[in-house]
Amino acid sequence: MAGVVQALDGLKLVIFGAYAAGPHIGKVLANYGAKVVHVESRERPDGFRLQYPPFKGRPGLDRSACFSYFNDSKYAVTLNLKAPDGMALAHRLAAWSDVVIENMRPGVMERLGLGYAALAKEKPGIIMLSTCNMGQTGPRADQPGFGSQLSALAGFCGLTGDPDGPPMLLYGPYIDFIASSLGSAAVLAALDQRQRTGKGCYIDVSQYEGGVNFIAGAMFDYFENGTVAHRAANDDLQATPHGAYLCEAERWLALSCWSDAEFAVLASAMDQPALPKDARFADAASRHANRALLDDVLAAWCRPRDAEATAALLQEAGLRAHLVTSIAGLFTDPQLVHRKTWRKRRHPVIGDQSYYFPGFDLSRTPGDITGPAPCFAADNHAVYRELLGLSEAEYDALCKEGAID
Amino acid sequence: MLLSGRVVLDCTDRLGWLAGRILADLGAEVVKLDPPDTDRSAADWQAFNINKRPVDLDVRTPVGRAELEARIAKADIVLASVQPGTASVEIFAYERLAALNPGLILVAISPFGLTGPRAEWKASDIELMAAGGAMSLAGEPDGAPRRISVPQSPPWTGSQAAIGALVALNERNRSGKGQLVDVSAQASIVISLAHAPAFFDVEGKEPKRAGTFMTGRSVTGARFRVFWPCRDGHLNFIIYGGAAGRRTNEQLCAWMREASADLGPLAGIDWKSFDPTKATQAEIDAIEKPVSVFFLTLTKRQFLDGAHKREMLGYPVSTVADIAGDPQLEARGFWQSVTGPDGVVRRHAGSFAVIDGKRPPLVQYPVDSRQKPSAAKKAVAEETR
Fold first, then answer.
1. Domain assignment of residue A302, yes or no
2. A52, A388, B48, B170: which is deepest, by most CB within 10 A?
3. CA–CA separation, A202 vs B116, rounded Å?
4. B346 has a chain A CB within 8 A of its CB
């Protein structure tokens, strides 16, 4: 969006990290105008580049659509800390930035000489955020892990599925995006403080704790009332019916009724106006007690119907209902299309890819996907020469000795 | 505190509660306006509105409206639940409110966004998790799509609303101008799908409900078990390849040997050359069998501690009771005991961020239920004039 001054224009971030939680903060802030530099080395490229499909045809550093999906609008550079001038270059990059994000194991940045104390000494006012599974302290601080498994420790898998069945997988590292969302908010709040006081800060975000914040109500209910939340299929204590029902063409319809009045409207939309008069369904408590039976009635009604058309019909009647949108369906969903949630950009290797624009729109400084994800080492020259201001001779020397590898 | 001195008016329902809690936890003064008949004793209300200053205010009455606008004139950020097609659109119309306060950041939180063909559609958590694609990924492959039983559309939406508010606040620091932030719950949930959309977009393959098994890791199409019954629940453990998988698998075998468990075919595997991407289903089944027998002898806590000690990947499937008793959270001071205005101490999940080594404390403020007609009366009087 040339010509438009974006909300975070002028903000500079450096990411020493890989995979989801740390780098994703950079993607979100880049979408609103920040310049974000993603640091890798040839020895250790971001694990998403090589280990995670989908790949365009075959694996390769620039062929992972998983990496590209999470890293649009950024710059990618290489920096080898083991080269003689690697550390000095890392410090120079950090000193250029306003914010440093890292998601290595606790203590690694300190050992590398890139801890907050060292960076803040060089650049007072710098903001640093560390995010890892367990947080920087505590008896299990050193425990690494994948977000998909941490989602089980933080309760989410155990809260998904049938009451008498096993826990369910959530797709991917669900909890990493909680950490990146909360981390983005913390970084932005720190920037507001710095703007007003000149002070920087160090922010420690435990992905586990971030996840537990997303079930804070259930935790409070446990502490206060001893209630242990359990997976409950699609049931809800307040609403019956409340579920997903199979329609024609293998599509599902989600719907819920939150009052007797809504249930009466549903019954009339189903052309079964006698339903609410049935003692088994007459009030919320009866409907909840007989929910299996009511689900059968709903299932039979939905089975031959078109899920989209039925959702529209029920919404028209003032009820809550929606197609269970498939992943493919997200790309044609009328609301997401209207909001331009998907923005196609041409990646040099992957080709056209649809990138996700965040779920909030700003009226005056709208932000954008400013470009596809960068190829490996793609922006070395631009970042080191133009943003950092190295001379051509300095740049060449650093390339030669391998600090820029 | 990072947001000290920032004033936030929180006029949200459940879908937006976490936004204000995040801003309050980061130091903002968040005033929570609720209709006078609000039940503030519910667990969710308490958990997501702690650290805010609750005030009774009915924005549907003229006096309440005047009071609201008097407060808006002095606020940095207004968080509002808006349902297109209802009176809330007019109450929180940005143009009118911006005339009262040109620096105002108005964050309008709605199920599907403020505009668009389905903006007026209504939704609770289950319809939003359906609309955002999340339900299509959870549940047994041959069963119904499932939602997470503790509603997740509110925290996803609230967290995105908080980011939006703070992006706009940083922009205002430069321009002096406010703006409207239009948050869609449906679009916010899409972030939780990780890279599932990229599979369809780039390869035309559509990720679907995976149930309890991991697929797509072996060229033979073999399924890898993820959830294993243990003595008191389930564990999340996967036979991975690569360096991390090798260490985990070697340590598991060592652990089983120490426990005199039967290793079966595990005993003969060289984990250095083991490649799960080429394993057949029969091989995986044979490997998983002795593991499943061993795991039945462990409790969740034993697995958590043992896996940590041995630097293995994998975690137990926690219940809220397990989480409440986890020493890691205790050691980090995550739980906070907050004394309410009634003198009762209640335990809460603390702020998500530790800043400069300190976790910002939570406060439970008393409810302000007094009518404050002075400003309101004045505004009404002026309007009448």
1. yes
2. B48
3. 41
4. yes
